[in-house]
Specification:
The structure holds two protein chains of two kinds. By secondary structure, chain A is an alpha/beta fold. Chain A is built from 22 helices and ten strands. Chain A has two domains: about 300 residues, ABC transporter type 1, transmembrane domain (ABC transporter transmembrane region fold, Up-down Bundle); about 230 residues, P-loop containing nucleotide triphosphate hydrolases (Rossmann fold, 3-Layer(aba) Sandwich), CATH 3.40.50. Chain B is about 65% helix and about 10% strand. The chains are: A alpha/beta, B alpha/beta.
Chain lengths: ~600, ~575
């Protein structure tokens, strides 16, 4: 009955995008930095100032303490200290500010590129990706990628500052430097080991959390059933069933943290102790002053700071991973260059009846030949139905008319002009589409209906609404045309009729109905067809049809079978002659996976 | 039922959960004190050791420093003991939030009839995760920083009370100013969060509608709408960063001013022998090595984390379920299953035309009624009203003589089954999906149901009742999902069944089989028809036709209603052959 292949041939699986080879669109560190050069440099300057003053602070403090202890005049040393502290405070403040501005600017630049690219990829791109996944790339992936730029600056400056601390220890007394290195090396190794464990246990935790989210999404989709069955409580239990496992994975992350914390703490105290003891011996031997002990303790903190840079390093590797998720989409090539990016001569489209012709059209999706040499003429002003089993290529053919998809070979002509020679926008002003599951864009019902043509008058909007038999529905909405889409309770049929109204309001010489009445019951569909015929007199219609009634009302039927035109004739002629034609309507109901 | 304190429900739930785990909190506090011993003693020991080293008493100096080791060991033990308590605090809090949010999302979704926004799930889980991460961070890092801070202050007090007192005053001053700034920061933070949600929301619609935008030649407009939201978020992020900068300046007051004061006062203090040289070094160590960095972290991290926490808690609280009114002890279900509709009127909004206006009809027990009419005329609304999912504006619906809105909810749900067009199939086995409403169904019942609604081919394709179905029934076609939903209600104890275009994605033959199976089942059947053939099979037909209503048998309506005749005629003009070959009602 229902072919199992239908569910699997839907191309929008997340796996497609995930398994694509890592793309290189030049989104390396340098490219990211170049998205916000001024902010990054400012961030670098302020961080260098902040860390530089940090490195000078112990020496200046030590000098001040020693002078104070020795009872000397301390004005100069104190003044230097005040200046240094003020500089550091200012640098910290601006460092924080420029960190945010650099990160924000980079992520905004990435977002602009991504949004434009998603639209440039058009319908083929949308078929490859799942919306939720694209939204994640646009929001959280770009944010993390942006934050990585200042993190890189921080890591570089902090590494230099740590090294500076070590050098300073060495300068006070080389023995201090040696003591530090002896303690710090094992601490670093231990930390690395624990970090790996922490990352893997956290990944497991996030997986469990995602499982709960998936169950909740499931339940929200079935909300009407759940409400009608009164099973809300059981659904809660079902959604939260993985909670114990989530808790267990959460506990594991704590266990790792615990190990990191006490072992590292102990090691650090050891390092501190050794360095202080060496400093104490230096005081006893008269090599070091009391101020030097203070300076040693402070430089020790600076030098050990690299250990707390682990967070920054994680940010960096996170940043890379997130950047490559954005880059993977940017690396996909649009089916044709963006119209305005490459100036070229387009032909103008003279007035005409809206005749549509396909000449030797082939389309390949993945490794499947979806259309295999289509030759078809749709006379101007005629209504032609596309009929065929699921997967016969009906939707693909319909998408070619407005160049939402470009053929791999062959030509599509509108009133004798190849669509490839027309500016895409000029072409699409003449071709309007209504879909099986339209997505309404814009904030209100009015905006949704006039989306491509905001200048449309209310009169025209109501005319289109009448043609789509949706006047009564709009009138019943709380605020009629001004109702926010979010507040409009839309059934599948109501959504389809608004989609139809949008297409009618859009106008043009060719209207493509891609299964656009499938959710309407037979009565409404008949009414809609009649109204459209009246309103759109003279306009060519290309209709993807699953119902015999729809096909019967068209002037001609183009019967598609496995990517080829099998026959072009009126419905009743095919119906009487061909058993195989009749069986097209008896078998599969409309499927989502159809193309 | 949970009891919550006053105020926003999110923070209230956190308070309640923390209070319930006050024992863990107490343990955490105790072990934190032990954990901060090394910091407390560090300055004291360093200062004493320095004085010994200055007097060339190396042995005593080293011995004093060596005392740091056992304190460090005690600290490590404390850390080790501390963590299980931290986990015992944070994980259950996260569980409580996840449970509340799930409950809220489910109840809100099942109550509303407007467009479903599943991106909210991603947002909610992300926010629960934020709360967990912040609690994690607060308890792991901030707790340590705070205790370090206090320990250093206490140590300083033991070493040099004058310096410590001055420091404490300055720190208190800094915190007071930060406290004044917090409400403003919180507001900015919230604005930013809303701007972030706006970006996700707009991008979700725009990306879903790439095809539509391109077809409308409006991809520029669609992209620009997302970009506007992106720009707005960036503006808000920068505004928050600028506002936060101010708090950083306060580190100067609490962390650096005390050091300057110490240095200015030192000559006098040394001369009056209130402090030794070692004590000056020790005090400076406390201020520069422990206090100031701790203050930096408190201001830099704690303020923003705490704001994140509060804002996320409040946002999550908005997603909680409304406190349920104690379910009115409704009337028990009657033992008759006839439906009487009396003067039913329903309107979606104050300014809207009524969807149903003064509708009256009776559906006898065992009756099979088909409802036909153009899409959008109110068929689904009628189904919702009959099922008690919507409350009529005027009039009533009586099941066995009892107003459905006054029936005990649980009994109404058991008595009445509604199958919507969008079939619900959840991750689990086919058996779990089918016995969802009939947990006690026997193997025999299952076999019967499978045969009756025509689930056989699906079963053999997937490999039996115990085959697993993925999330959202990913491996099933729309029609197969509808068959599962049909089988589920067929098995259920429901005696009034409403099929709301529940067979729309089945082919005509499968649709006929399912309807015939339900008609043969004991009880009352209402079919909201997707195809006119559903009306032919019914005993009676209700035609909703704008302001008029026609009720009768198929043959009566063909004669009496021109619009019904036209409707049937349209069908006959198109697919006569299919229609006439379909099985008619049995008997």
């Amino acid at each position: 009955m229902m072919s199992p292949s239908v569910a699997t041939d839907r191309p929008r699986s997340p796996g497609v995008a995930a398994s694509a080879p890592p793309a290189d669109v030049g989104l390396g560190w340098w490219a990211l930095v170049r998205m916000a050069p001024a902010n990054t440099v400012a961030n670098l300057v302020w961080l260098v100032l902040a860390n530089g003053s940090m490195l000078l602070l112990p020496a200046v403090s030590a000098a001040a303490v020693d002078q104070v202890i020795a009872g000397q005049a301390v004005g100069g040393a104190l003044a230097a200290l005040v200046g240094l502290l003020a500089l550091r405070m200012l640098a910290e403040a601006y460092g924080g500010l420029t960190r945010v501005s650099a990160a924000t600017r980079v992520s905004v630049a990435l977002r602009y590129r991504l949004v434009r690219h998603v639209f440039a990829l058009g319908v083929p791109g949308a078929r490859r990706h799942v919306t939720g996944d694209l939204v994640t790339r646009l929001t959280s992936n770009t944010t993390t990628a942006g934050a990585a730029v200042p993190a890189l600056v921080t890591a570089a400056v902090a590494a230099a500052a740590s090294l500076g601390g070590l050098v300073a220890l060495w300068l006070i007394d080389w023995r201090l430097g040696v003591a530090f290195l002896v303690g710090a090396l094992p601490a670093t190794l231990l930390l690395r080991l624990l970090m790996n464990r922490a990352t893997s246990s956290y990944a497991e935790y996030l997986e469990r959390l995602a499982a709960i989210a998936a169950r909740l999404t499931d339940a929200l989709t079935g909300r009407r059933t759940i409400r009608a069955s009164g099973t809300q409580r059981r659904e809660m239990a079902r959604v939260l069933a993985p909670l114990p496992e989530l808790s267990r994975a959460g506990q594991e992350t704590w266990a790792v943290q615990r190990a990191v914390s006490w072992q590292v703490d102990l090691l650090l105290t050891g390092v501190r102790l050794v360095v202080l003891a060496v400093a104490g011996l230096g005081v006893a031997a008269g090599r070091l002053s009391p101020g030097d002990v203070l300076a040693a303790a402070m430089y020790l903190t600076s030098a050990l700071a690299f250990l707390s840079q682990v967070d920054t390093l994680i940010k960096l590797s996170d940043g890379r991973a997130n950047t490559s998720r954005v880059a993977a989409v940017l690396a996909e090539r649009p089916q044709e260059p963006v119209a305005d990016a490459a100036p070229r001569q387009y032909r103008a489209l003279a007035a005409g009846p809206g005749a549509l012709s396909f000449r030797g059209v082939r389309v390949r999706l993945g490794d499947q030949l979806v259309l295999d040499g289509i030759d078809l003429d749709v006379p101007g002003g005629a209504a032609v139905a596309l009929v065929g089993r699921s997967g016969a290529g009906k939707t693909t053919l319909a998408l070619l008319a407005g160049r939402l998809l470009t053929p791999d070979s062959g030509t599509v002509l509108i009133d004798g002009v190849p669509t490839a020679d027309l500016h895409p926008d000029a072409l699409r002003r003449e071709v309007s589409y209504a879909f099986d599951r339209p997505v309404l864009l814009g904030g209100t019902v009015r905006e949704a209906l006039t989306y491509g043509r905001p200048e449309t008058s209310d009169e025209e909007v109501w005319r289109a609404a009448r043609a789509a038999q949706t006047v009564g529905f709009i009138r019943r909405l709380p605020q009629a045309l001004d109702t926010a889409l979010a507040d409009a309770p839309l059934s599948g049929g109501e959504l389809q009729r608004l989609g139809l109204a949008r297409a009618v309001a859009h106008g043009g010489r060719l209207l493509v109905l891609d299964d656009a009445t499938s959710s309407l019951d037979t009565v409404t569909e008949a009414e809609v067809t009649r109204a459209l015929t009246e309103v759109l007199a003279g306009c060519t219609r290309l209709i993807v049809a699953h119902r015999a009634g729809t096909a019967a009302r068209a002037d001609l039927v183009a019967w598609l079978d496995a990517g080829r035109i099998r026959a072009v004739a009126p419905h009743h002629a095919l119906w009487e002659r061909e058993a195989a034609y009749r069986s097209v309507f008896a078998a599969d109901p409309p499927e989502e996976g159809d193309r | 039922m949970r009891r919550r304190g006053p105020g926003s429900p999110g923070p209230a739930l956190l308070r309640q959960e923390l209070w319930a785990r006050r024992r863990a909190l107490a343990r955490i506090a105790l072990w934190s004190i032990v954990e901060s011993l090394p910091v407390l003693l560090s300055g004291l020991l360093v200062s004493a050791a320095t004085d010994r080293f200055l007097t060339r008493d190396v042995g005593a100096g080293l011995a004093l420093l060596a005392l740091l080791l056992p304190t460090a060991a005690a600290g490590a033990v404390a850390t080790n003991r501390l963590f299980p308590w931290l986990a015992a605090l944070v994980e259950p809090v996260r569980d409580a939030f996840l449970a509340e949010v799930t409950k809220g999302a489910l109840l809100a979704a099942t109550r509303s009839t407007t467009r479903l926004d599943t991106t909210s799930v991603a947002r909610l889980t992300a926010q629960v995760q934020t709360v967990r991460n912040i609690l994690f961070g607060l308890l792991r890092t901030v707790r340590q920083v705070l205790f370090t801070f206090v320990a250093a202050l206490v140590g300083l007090f033991l070493l040099a009370p004058v310096v410590a007192s001055a420091t404490a005053v300055l720190v208190a001053l800094a915190f007071a100013v930060i406290g004044l700034l917090v409400p403003k920061l919180a507001a900015r933070h919230r604005t930013l969060l809303l701007a972030q949600e706006e970006v996700a929301g707009r991008a979700g619609v725009a990306f879903e509608g790439v095809r539509d935008a391109v077809a409308c030649a409006a991809q520029q407009r669609a992209a620009a709408e997302v970009e506007r939201a992106v720009d707005d978020e960036a503006t808000q992020a920068l505004a928050l960063a600028r506002a936060t900068t101010l708090t950083r300046l306060l580190v100067f007051v609490g962390g650096q001013l005390p050091l300057l004061m110490l240095l200015v006062a030192t000559p006098g203090l040394l001369r009056s022998e209130s402090l030794t040289v070692g004590e000056v070094v020790g005090a400076a160590t406390y201020l520069l090595v422990s206090l100031e960095p701790a203050l930096q972290r408190i201001v830099g991290v704690v303020v923003s984390w705490a704001l994140d926490l509060v804002v996320s808690l409040r946002r999550l609280g908005e997603a909680f379920a409304e406190p349920e009114p104690a379910e009115p002890d409704g009337l028990p279900a009657p033992d008759r299953y006839d439906l009487r509709v009396e003067g039913l009127t329903f309107t979606y909004g104050a300014h809207a035309d009524p969807v149903l206006d003064d509708l009256s009809l009776t559906i006898d027990e065992g009756d099979h009624l088909a409802v036909v009419g153009s899409s959008g005329i109110g068929k689904s609304t009628l189904a919702n009203l009959l099922a008690g999912l919507l409350v009529p504006c005027r009039g009533a619906i009586r099941l066995g003589g009892v107003d459905v809105t006054r029936l005990r909810e649980s009994e109404l749900r058991r008595t009445l089954g509604l199958i919507p067009q969008e079939a619900y199939v959840f991750a689990g086995t086919l058996r779990e999906n089918l016995t969802y409403l009939a947990p006690d169904a026997t193997e025999r019942d299952l076999v019967d149901a499978v045969a009756a609604v025509g689930l056989g081919p699906l079963l053999s394709r997937l490999g039996g009742l115990d085959a697993r179905v993925g999330t959202g029934g990913a491996d099933l076609s729309q029609g197969e999902k509808q068959l599962v939903a049909l089988g589920r209600v067929y098995l259920s104890p429901a005696r009034v069944v409403i099929l709301d275009e529940a067979t729309a994605n089945l082919d005509p033959v499968a649709e006929a089989r399912a309807e015939v199976a339900f008609a043969a089942r004991p009880g009352t059947l209402v079919v909201i028809a997707h195809r006119i053939t559903s009306a032919r099979r019914a005993e009676r037909v209700l035609l909703l036709d704008g302001d008029r209503v026609h009720l009768g048998t198929h043959d009566e309506l063909v004669r009496s209603s021109s619009s019904y005749a036209e409707l049937v005629g349209w069908w006959d003009a198109g697919g006569t052959a299919t229609a006439s070959r379909l099985p008619a009602r049995p008997g």
